[in-house]
Amino acid sequence: MQRYIQLTTEQYQQIEVVAPFDEGLLSFNQQPLPCYASLILEFMAALSDALCHISDAPNAKALGFFLRQRALEKAVNERLIGGARAPMGVSFHLVPGNVPMVAFHSAFASLLQGNPTIVRLSSRQLDEQQVVFEILNTLLAEPRWQTISERLRFIRYARDDVLTQALSGICQSRVIWGGDASIEGIRGLPLPASAFELTFADRQSLALFDEVALRELPGRAIELQLKQLAQDISQFGQQSCSSPGLLVWLGQDVVFRERLFAQLASFLDDSLAKASEQLTILQLAVTTGQVSDYQQHHGVGWGQLAIGQALPARGAGVLYWQQRSTWHDWLSTADNFQTCVMVGGSRDALRERLADYPALRLDRIVAPGQALAFDWYWDGIDLLSQLSRRQG
Hints:
The chain is an alpha/beta fold and about 400 residues long. Helix content is about 40%, strand content about 20%.
């Protein structure tokens, strides 16, 4: 049964529907489609093809590559091994503006399950989002995708708990991406008794340099890894949760570490470097005891993170680092992180070591250049499986 969104005419007018263009919430169809319906997969293939032909929006093009038909078929088949899946129902997503493509990853994870999906966007109009919306609106205007168009809404509205509560009231799942304070505020707005919630809160990430393994690599291989790591760090202004903010050097050679850190700095985006802001961030971290020492070299503010301290504020080209002598020295005192970028060493070897440290949480272990690459598994959660249910 279609549930009525309890809003006044004036409240409806406060909501901007970004996609599908010229559609409103009153025409939103709340009836689910089958999980992984052929029509949905065909639509994703068409969207992927259009996005992959973009030349000047790399993140939008990466989204297209992620949604390519072969990759989706593989993801779907893996999740059907345990039996048939069924949709949950209307899904409401609230996303931030610091990583533009999250809005689409979250929405399409839900739509693939057949869930009618509403995404509340950040109030900021982001260029690369707009590129995707132009393509998305062109596709959704075609008659063959009307069934999809009826069940997908990307919207904007000024912060308003009444609107958020009304939209929460019709959903069977609510997905929140954002800062801890924002999530806590939204969590205070009740859901229907049968609904559930997924949250993706503030997280930190790191890069782990394996000195022994790095010594065995040729200079060109090290240079390539450092260039890729620089992209992981600098994209989205260091604000993505999966962008490494801490560099952990596993070894004892100070000269080797300083040489590679300087080389890394040379590949970082120059626009990040803001000397006065760096100084403010680092001096504050020293006064709170989080940083034991700091310096500014090669356009980067380097803060030595004290053992046992959480990462301070990021941005402005500030990087925090630690030098640890052995694996146990680091693993026995390490904090929980979302993403670990393995520089020089073996990801499989690190996974094996983690078995001896069950309290330590590293949700993703990736190669340099892959920290910002989205996966259906995020923060240890399988988005596709969580947004559907086992049938029978």
